[in-house]
Each structure stands twice: as structure tokens, then as C-alpha cells.
Amino acid sequence: MDVSIKAPAKINLTLDVLHKRDDGYHELEMVMTTIDLADRIDLTEKAAGGIQLESSSGFVPFDDRNLAYRAAQLIKGRFNINKGVHIKIDKKIPVAAGLAGGSSDAAATLKGLNQLWQLGLNLEELAELGVELGSDVPFCVLGGTAIAQGRGERLTPLPPPPPCWVILAKPPHGVSTAEVFGAFRQEKVEKRPQLEQMEAALAAGDFHGICQGLSNVLESVTLDQYPKVRLMKEKMQRFGAPGVLMSGSGPTVFSLVEQENAARRVVNSLRGFCRQVYAVRILGGLGEPNRLE
Ligand code: C5P
């Protein structure tokens, strides 16, 4: 039997670091939303017990450094599964980009193996397993739009933003999340997200309120360390995008744009300057075009 599952990327509409915890992680408060930039995970059962991984991208590891591989290991161990699985990852989400690509692959693998091996787990149980793999995995299991607190695993669903284009620009280098958190200093933060304001803007479907509320305290680290990321953000703002932010620990910068012709202008202006530019929709708005052709 085969299972094929879509693994969408996320962006942060807000990201706040409240404090460093005794376990070394940071207590977070974020609003995240899934977007229609997605990997595809194909799972094929194997009679022999091993886990094999194949990917369209040369940038992902094929062993237990890969979160999808670890997801399969976790499920096999926890539920005493003797069968093996071949995991094929069709990679579209840039790696180490602040878009939770690896976490989403892991979440899709958990969901897919739940189907393949008929484990009968619900989304909450899959999310609980997911946090053992990484802080963003529970959100990726659930998808949609949500507040994420704690390490990122305490989730409260929110209404999605109104239909709009998400333009993403990924600088050529990746960023280590652990290094960004390690270099984070509260005293360097200039602007903090206002969670209630973002919740109210989402509840009201207020596009401009959402744009005004975009805020990520990790910009204080990544924009300083990588001037190219700061430049990218400034360019997007200059090209007329109403809301621009770095996602997660970076380095991807995104803008939200309501009108298609304005989205095209931003994309065209970025093209000469950045090789990896994407224009996609927020997931949730059914029946709308998903890409700029
Ligand atoms: O949970 P995950 O393995 O994805 O986290 C990667 C790294 O990011 C952690 O090792 C930690 O350094 C940092 N992190 C953190 N606080 C969080 C989430 C991640 O410090 N809430």
C-alpha cells in the first residue's frame, strides 16, 4: 500500500521570546499559518524492516539526521512495527529557511504512517508524538492558523488571514535555529508582537491590521548577523508590500499582498536580486488560484 501526503510550509505572523527555560529551550508565543508551498511525502510499505529515504533534493540528509526518518523510527519503536517503509520526499520548501520544511515532512510522515499502519491515532496524539521530534512539528500536524505557546507545542486555533498572496524571498544561505536562539538577547529587541492585536485582526479579517501586527523578535539576531536579509526586507518594503517580516529564525523574508497585480510587481522587482522567490496563497481559502503563473 502507498500513502501520499502534502507537507506545507508555515510562516510566522508573530514570534515573541518570553524567557529562557531551565531545560534550555525558550518560552515562545507565536502566531503561525500554513501556506501553499509544500513538499510531498510518498510512503511505501516494505516487508523488510528498514527505513529508506529518497529525496528530490541534494540538501536533505538520508539518515536519522532527517526529521522524516526520525518520525518513522519513532512510530516503529513506539508501536512495535516490524515492517519497513520507503519514504520519498519531493522537496519544494527551501531547507533551513525558517519555514518548518523539515518539521512539516516529519508531521506528514507521522500522519502517513498512522494511515499506512492503521494505528488509529487522532491529530492530538500525533501532535504529542511530534513534539519529541521538534518544537514546530505539533503545529505542522495540525496546520491552519494558530497561536503556539510553550516550546511551540501548545496550540490554539485561530481563523486564517483573509485571502492574499504570500511572496517569499529566500537568501542563498541557511540559518541554524539553535544558533539564532543562542544569540538572542532581550535587550536588543526594539519592537514586540502584540498578540491580542493580531488575534483581533484575524478575527475581523482585517488585512491591514494583520500587516501592521507582523512582528518577530528573532529579527534582532538574524538581520544583524546577515545584512543581506535586512536588505531583502528593505527592498520588499520599498517595492510597496504593505506587510514584510522574517519567518521563524530566518532567513526567509515574506510579504503579504492583497491584489494580484501588486503581488506580481513585488515578485518582478525581487527577481534580479534573489534567485529563490515564491508567490503562494495562505492555505485555507478554497477555490482560489494558488500560484502566480
Ligand atoms: O525543537 P527543535 O529541535 O526544532 O529546536 C531547535 C533548536 O532551537 C533547539 O535546540 C533550541 O536551541 C532552539 N529552540 C529554543 N526554544 C524553542 C524552540 C527551539 O531555544 N522553543
Automatic annotation (TrEMBL):
UniProt key word Transferase: yes
GO biological process annotation, one example: isopentenyl diphosphate biosynthetic process, methylerythritol 4-phosphate pathway
Reaction catalyzed: 4-CDP-2-C-methyl-D-erythritol + ATP = 4-CDP-2-C-methyl-D-erythritol 2-phosphate + ADP + H(+)
GO molecular function: 4-(cytidine 5'-diphospho)-2-C-methyl-D-erythritol kinase activity; ATP binding
Enzyme class, first EC level, given as a word: transferase
Pfam family, one: GHMP_kinases_N
Residue span(s) of domain GHMP kinase N-terminal: 66-144
Pathway participation: Isoprenoid biosynthesis; isopentenyl diphosphate biosynthesis via DXP pathway; isopentenyl diphosphate from 1-deoxy-D-xylulose 5-phosphate: step 3/6
Residues that, per the record, bind ATP: 94-104
Function, as annotated: Catalyzes the phosphorylation of the position 2 hydroxy group of 4-diphosphocytidyl-2C-methyl-D-erythritol.
Record protein name field: 4-diphosphocytidyl-2-C-methyl-D-erythritol kinase
Native species: Melghirimyces thermohalophilus
Gene transcribed to yield this protein: ispE
